[in-house]
Write a structure and sequence with these properties.
The chain has one domain. Helix content is about 80%, strand content about 0%. The protein is built from 9 helices and no strands.
Length: about 220
């Protein structure tokens, strides 16, 4: 991303690829096809969109009206909060790529990540004005806020599903099947990670107890 900001040609490509996200929002099938197959997207733009989504989600905690969000700051760990966004994203990218690779999916790991980030663009674009609006609406008008907030999430979900179909070159039915299967793959990855860390913890505990026993006997 630093190169994109210092080199004029790279900066132009970065800005064009960032604006192309708007085309993907309104023309998802053509947009996500061109994003990867025609190389209209860039990792720098994808990272920017992800950063904006995380930033808006954090700002919502501070600047959304207390009518809609109640935050207990003394209990909030901002790093764990950010991890709660990045960890599911990593699981989705790895799970979808690993599963589709076994069944002739054309998308590479980087392309899955890029397309997923581009699919998240409606979130910051919709949530930012909603965050501001929340401070000027009454409780009775709050339903309008809630509906638009849900729409932003559904919009992102539909874009991501469309993106996966285009980069893997799957038909509609096959794409939906592998979207659901990817969710199960995420659960499998969580189980493997839990098992791995459990074994590491037990191994460390055994080594520590062994060293203590040796020191005690000495």
């Amino acid at each position: 991303m630093f190169k994109a900001l210092t080199n004029k040609e790279a900066r132009t490509r970065y800005l064009d690829s960032l604006k192309f996200g708007l085309y993907c929002m309104t023309h998802p099938l053509d947009g996500f096809w061109d994003l990867t197959h025609e190389k209209r997207g860039t990792m720098a733009a994808a990272n920017t969109i992800l950063f904006l989504a995380i930033l808006i989600r954090i700002l919502k905690l501070k600047y959304t009206s207390f009518i809609f969000i109640t935050v207990y700051w003394e209990e909030l760990n901002i790093f764990l909060y950010i991890a709660s966004i990045l960890f599911p994203l990593a699981l989705w990218v790895v799970g979808n790529w690993g599963l589709t690779t076994l069944f002739d999916g054309k998308g590479r790991l980087g392309q899955v990540y890029m397309a997923t980030c581009y699919g998240m663009l409606p979130y910051p674009l919709i949530q930012l004005p909603l965050m501001i609006m929340s401070n000027f609406v009454t409780v009775e008008e709050g339903q309008f806020y809630s509906v638009l907030s849900v729409i932003s999430l559904i919009y992102c979900l539909l874009l991501i599903i469309a993106a996966m179909g285009q980069i893997h070159e799957f038909s509609g039915g096959k794409n939906l099947l592998f979207t659901v299967a990817s969710l199960f793959a995420m659960l499998v990855l969580i189980f493997i990670l839990m098992l791995f860390f459990s074994m590491i913890t037990q191994g460390i505990s055994y080594i520590v107890s062994l060293v203590r026993e040796m020191l005690f006997r000495m």
